[in-house]
Design goal:
By secondary structure, this protein is an alpha/beta fold. The strands form two sheets. A seven-stranded mixed beta sheet has the order 3-2-1-4-5-9-8. The protein has a two-stranded antiparallel ribbon with strand order 6-7. It has six helices and nine strands. The chain has a single domain, classed as 3-Layer(aba) Sandwich (Rossmann fold), CATH 3.40.50. The structure holds S-adenosylmethionine. The site of S-adenosylmethionine has 19 residues, from helix 1.
Length: about 220
């Protein structure tokens, strides 16, 4: 993350309107972050979250992760997203099983609706927080809501990843940079760099890190 990557979204940026517009105008299979099977995330959840554990997918959007989590039926699942239209896609797919999920429509930097979680999953959301107040607001919610011993799984664009996503500037991170941002309350337990292939065939480099919360 360097100075040029810290470009702000802009003072007048309307985050809700931006994301509602994305999910109302694009097919969920056409957005650049679409993945047909969230295999990596599911493997990590299986590995680190005991049966009955509470998981939140922050900025879950219309991802198929919720479908797979509900199908497994092993955990208490919360999806949070700023765009109601995104979660509506997921709710429709789940049909009569949608009640099994706690849905929170809110901005993660502002929400007061969080409970306690054993696992906090974030795929391509934290990297949109390009100003430090928003990052601090996110991290204080993470700290308040994740139990000690719980896991934080985060996937952001890597230093050699794109500078923008969905037309918005992002911060790109290495493992070390994520570790620094989180501070000493979190221990890095697993990491990987991977290439995500978008629906248009472009490869985007991601940093994926698993942290365990060891102290408040
Ligand atoms: C790049 S998409 C990733 C969606 C999903 N995690 C996935 O992997 O398919 C980013 C998501 O974060 C949501 N989002 C962006 N900023 C947010 C915020 N401040 N609070 C909550 N959700 C946010 C967007 O609506 C969108 O669904």
């Amino acid at each position: 993350m360097n100075g040029s990557q810290m470009a702000d979204e802009g003072r007048d940026f309307d985050r809700v309107a931006h994301w509602e517009n994305v999910y109302s105008t694009k097919k969920t299979t056409e957005v650049s972050w679409f993945e047909a099977e969230p295999t990596t995330s599911l493997d990590l959840i299986d590995r680190f979250l005991p049966q009955g554990g509470h998981i939140i997918d922050v900025g879950g959007g219309a991802s198929f992760l919720v479908d797979r989590l509900v199908a497994k039926g092993s955990w208490d699942v919360t999806i949070l997203d700023i765009a109601s239209s995104a979660m509506e896609h997921a709710r429709k797919r789940l049909g009569e099983n949608a009640w099994k999920v706690h849905w929170i429509c809110d901005d993660i930097t502002k929400t007061t609706q969080l409970a306690k979680y054993d696992f906090w999953h974030d795929r391509a959301v934290f990297h949109f927080l390009t100003n430090s107040d928003d990052r601090q607001a996110y991290l204080s919610r993470l700290n308040e809501s994740l139990v000690i011993g719980g896991y934080f799984v985060v996937a952001t664009f890597a230093p050699d990843g794109p500078e923008k996503c969905s037309g918005l500037p992002v911060c790109r991170y290495s493992f070390d940079q994520l570790e620094n941002v989180l501070g000493r309350g979190f221990k890095l337990v697993s990491n990987a760099q991977f290439g995500h292939v978008t629906p248009t065939g472009k490869t985007q480099q991601f940093t994926l890190a698993v942290f365990q919360k060891i102290e408040s």
